[in-house]
């Protein structure tokens, strides 16, 4: 599936840089639309990717649109609930359309689908810089292990994730700092099968301003990790910013002490690989969405929700918006406008999840919400609606929403 950089053609219709969910979704749609697509990634596939691996309803919807839902679900571990665990130990299980599949497998499936659709996959190949003529990007310079090659393209799509180097090289990075950070590992412990059978998300004062999770992958394997939104902040006077005082490994260790299932999982389990960390880019902020000849998509454009850290579904969704804009056949200005209008339609939902993010900074809100949800089917239904994207997450934790919790 992976061709070496020596097989890079001199030109193509669209060059997609980054073969994660956003890049592969873009390539699938474009190739099926009859365009000559080159998909490149700095890693050969399959490759690991730091992620919680959860497929929430928006991911199921995006996979269905791509025609990939059946293939993914044949390998994924189905889950019936998200287990919301509050600081005082209260718990409510929120039903939803859910599954877990390690990103190594998911991304490989999507990348293979892109190739089967007609895209050429070149890896390893790192984006060096854009090729520019008359202030329009007309291709890119790529670096492989033994060679540097240029490829011309009518459109270049950056789907390079949260690391900002490609965004900087392309001149579209507006914020080098990540929105958040996460740390995760895989633990095999068959004895915990059945005991941890939901997507457990845990809030606790010891984890503030973040949260912990344990997601079952099936066959006795579990994804366990911690995440922090707003982990970095800008310095006054326009400095580069700095990391707030939060040590992810210390928070991870706290998580495995204060939450019984996490403690038992680690005590009786075997780590598969090392704990790995990664940055997050959230809320459709931190990068310009386009410039002449270039579209930015997926986590590179901030497609992760700040409240939950989930980004797989929205990454694919932005990728499909990107493909639809290009396939629209308009000129440069129209294509960019179509794509950016699509992102603008998504932006209000990202802003709502940003509002809901205050639960991570104020865990007592989780205590209140879980307490009421255990007593009110209507509140539980609203929480399920947040998962299914039919309810407003900000309303549950706004001042007005908190007041309503006492009256409904």
Short overview:
With 408 residues, this protein is α/β, with parallel strands linked by helices.
Topology:
Blueprint: E1 11-17, H1 21-32, E2 37-40, E3 54-55, H2 57-65, H3 69-73, E4 77-85, E5 91-100, H4 103-116, E6 120-122, E7 126-133, E8 136-143, E9 148-158, H5 165-170, E10 180-188, E11 199-202, E12 210-218, E13 221-229, E14 232-233, E15 242-243, H6 248-258, H7 260-268, E16 270-280, E17 290-291, E18 294-296, H8 312-327, H9 332-356, H10 358-361, H11 364-373, H12 377-388, H13 393-397, H14 399-405
Helix pairs in contact: 1-4, 1-8, 2-8, 6-7, 8-9
Number of strands: 18
Count of helical stretches:
14
The CATH class of the largest domain turns out to be Alpha Beta
- What spatial form do the alpha-carbon principal axes imply? globular
Q: Which architecture of the largest domain does the CATH hierarchy give at level 2?
A: 3-Layer(bba) Sandwich
User: Mean pLDDT across all residues, rounded?
Assistant: 91
What's the CATH topology label of the largest domain? FAD/NAD(P)-binding domain
- Structural class category: alpha/beta
Number of separate domains: 3
Which bin fits the share of residues in helices?
25-40%
Query: What value does the Rg take, in angstroms?
Result: 21 Å
Distance between the termini: 55 Å
Poorly predicted ranges = 234-241
